[in-house]
Amino acid sequence: MENKNISRRRFVLSGGIAATAAALASLAGVAVQATPYFSAQRRKPNIIVILADDFGWGSLGCYGAPAQLKTPSLDRLALEGRRFTNAYAPSSVCSPTRYGLMTGRYDWRTRGDGGGVIGAAAPLQIETDRLTLASLCKGQGYRTAAFGKWHLGLQTPPRTDWNKPLAPGPRAIGFDYFFGIAANAWNGPHTFIENETLLGRIPGEDVKVMENYSPTNYTKGIKEQYKTDYLMEAFTDKATDWIEKNSSKPFFMYYAATAVHKPHDHHPRFTGSPFDKYGNFIEELDWCVGRILTQLDRLKLADNTLVIFTSDNGGVIFQGDPEIKYAMDAGLAINGPLRGGKHSEWEGGFREPFLVRWPGKVPAGTVSDQVICLTDILATLAGMFDVPLPSGNAEDSFNAWRLFTEENPGPPIRDHVIMHAANSTYAIRMGDWKLVERKAPKQNELYNIKEDVAETKNLMAANADRAAQMQKILSEARDRGYTRPDAGK
């Protein structure tokens, strides 16, 4: 799946750690790396995390998408930084991954085994006293902002009341500013939220949201509904303006795109993709990323900005959706060679594109096969700041900074990644092996995903001891309450 037009230096995962309890115990001394990555005299780096929505592993040129799909800005990140081939979302659906990304903690530790997406009117899912990406950066003197799709809940239980201030919300967990939407574009309320305020309300009229997931949804009590094909442009306008206004100090920006989640309503300027609306939407996402990169260039901030691009879960491959079917029939392998997609327990649901750029720090034009998880970003930033993680926080987050910067592949930073599907199925990857946990141990499935990335050969029968060891580590990790060894101190 390599793009022949993009030259790379490749860094290969070296072996993997054996799937044994002893291997887990050997990591007990691992702590957040206490090495400063910038001098006291140099300004702290800006940090931008871009999270696409339902964006599949094979949907970028640098991940092997057909040349007819135009993704020059994201391919630029790969050329100027490092592309990871084994990066995992902790969940194969939206809001659980967003919780994990923000907190460095597996969502099922908070919400149990349900595994599904929260409702559009759910209360805030993140405890306000829990460390987050935003509160970590804010504590280091950063200006912080979030733009786009939130989908982590607003207000307190039992559910959001759209007629009251939308607090607690993003600003209660460390963001100075928020502009975006509550959940998915069709969910409603069909107007923007700025900080704790629902914009465009009709004075004296209650807001009422039609809650079924449908393009015919509407919201009463607002002057005008947003147009879904202009959402990405609106988020990007706000984000690039905010960068300019806050460029005098270090900043952390979280940009959560609605692309390429349904509805595939792209801006009218994007036309002509051979993959039709789905392809046009991908190209709009790339254009929005390009605008952010251009703003960094214009303000001469690029050389001191860490940019991370990834996705909340794999792409949808449901052929009952005519727009997705058209793109796939036209030759777009949305999740590349991976089995399954969003919602599933297969690699296509969890393995994500993951691009990292920081000129002069992250080697340009490189590829890493090291295993990382989106939950690792929090510990990585803490290590970069040389800040210890407080007890009871970031329980499933490992410092991946070395993987961003190493010239030659060192040992893995974690010996396993736990994945949780929308149907509550757990899976665990250890080294080159992946165990899918079923209702009874004899029904479990075991795959060597290095040799069989499409997960076609269940090797359970011939590797019963290995599977039992992996099952044991999965069970212990659930019971223990953390996977980062020093998180329990």
What does this protein structure show overall?
- The protein starts with 8 loop residues before the first strand and ends in a 9-residue tail after the last helix.
- The protein has helices spanning 21-26, 72-80, 94-103, 108-111, 133-139, 231-245, 276-298, 322-329, 347-350, 376-385, 401-405, 464-480, and strands spanning 9-11, 46-52, 82-88, 143-149, 177-181, 193-194, 197-198, 208-209, 219-220, 251-256, 305-311, 351-357, 366-373, 417-420, 426-430, 433-436, 445-448.
- Mean pLDDT is 91; it is low at 1-9 and 11-35.
- It has one domain (9-20, 34-204, 215-416): 3-Layer(aba) Sandwich (Alkaline Phosphatase, subunit A).
- By secondary structure, it is of the alpha/beta class.
- It contains 12 helices and 17 strands.
- Strand 15 and strand 16 form a beta hairpin.
How do the helices and strands line up, and which of them pair or pack?
Blueprint: E1 9-11, H1 21-26, E2 46-52, H2 72-80, E3 82-88, H3 94-103, H4 108-111, H5 133-139, E4 143-149, E5 177-181, E6 193-194, E7 197-198, E8 208-209, E9 219-220, H6 231-245, E10 251-256, H7 276-298, E11 305-311, H8 322-329, H9 347-350, E12 351-357, E13 366-373, H10 376-385, H11 401-405, E14 417-420, E15 426-430, E16 433-436, E17 445-448, H12 464-480
Helix pairs in contact: 6-7, 7-8
